[in-house]
Design goal:
Catalyzes the formation of 4-diphosphocytidyl-2-C-methyl-D-erythritol from CTP and 2-C-methyl-D-erythritol 4-phosphate (MEP). Pathway: Isoprenoid biosynthesis; isopentenyl diphosphate biosynthesis via DXP pathway; isopentenyl diphosphate from 1-deoxy-D-xylulose 5-phosphate: step 2/6. InterPro entries: IspD, IspD/TarI, IspD/TarI_cytidylyltransf_bact, ISPD_synthase_CS, Nucleotide-diphossugar_trans. It is a single chain. The chain has seven helices and twelve strands. It is of the alpha/beta class. It starts with a strand and ends with a helix.
């Protein structure tokens, strides 16, 4: 079997945090957010290599302030990001060799569990593509261009998708090649497979597996760590 690699995309700029520092470098309990994320994958026995995609102007900072400070048990290969998130993912994918399964993860999701990682690998091997998700708690409305509701979606059919999104390497590379050649913009990597006709198996995620985007999320992140 080929390698099982993690591809972590860390390109957030922290605009919604009102911070000059990119959000992946903001601290949660005195350690950078991106360190918490890398540590989860580094500690997972099923992961071989970790590919970290960063904006070109942040590579030196990461190497000097984080990579040298913390000891990771898995190799971390740094890849320069692209203009859009999907360009960054593509750069990461084509950097890999001898990869069988790849897990594409948001750098700003520091609370992914070992079970979610291992389940994703297992289901990707079985079905070609998988992603964790949680049932939505709120009623979801569809609104028109004037802000009025025009439909109510069935809550029991809705799932909020998280990462890591896990794939057979050859399959997700095919999907990304297709959207790249046809100039299609997607919001996540599962969409790249759906466009070429593949179904994605959705398995159980966790409400703790949040994406840190706002100042309020940082507060929640502190609570999650304290609760653990």
């Amino acid at each position: 079997m080929g390698k099982v690699n993690a591809l972590i995309v860390a390109g957030g700029k922290g605009k919604r945090m009102n911070s000059d520092k990119s959000k992946q470098f903001l601290n949660i309990q005195e350690k950078p957010l991106i360190h918490h994320t890398l540590e989860k994958f580094s500690m997972c026995s099923d992961i071989d290599d970790i590919y970290l995609v960063l904006p070109e102007d942040e590579v030196r900072y990461f190497e000097g302030d984080i990579l040298k400070r913390y000891n990771y048990s898995k190799p971390i290969i740094i890849v320069k990001g692209g203009r859009e998130r999907q360009d960054s993912v593509y750069n990461g994918l084509v950097s890999m060799k001898d990869c069988e399964v790849v897990l594409i993860h948001d750098g700003a999701r520091p609370f992914v569990s070992d079970d979610i990682i291992k389940d994703g690998i297992r289901y990707a091997s079985l079905y070609g593509g998988s992603a964790p998700g949680v049932k939505v708690k709120d009623t979801i409305k569809v609104i028109d261009e004037h802000g009025f509701s025009k439909a109510t979606l069935k809550r029991d059919e809705l799932v909020a998708i998280q990462t890591p999104q896990c794939f057979k390497y050859s399959t997700i590379l095919e999907g990304h090649n297709y959207i790249r050649e046809n100039k299609i913009l997607v919001t996540d990597d599962t969409a790249a497979l759906e466009i070429i006709g593949h179904k994605i198996f959705i398995y159980e995620g966790s409400y703790d597996n949040i994406k840190v985007t706002t100042k309020e999320d940082l507060t929640i992140a502190e609570l999650i760590i304290n609760g653990r």
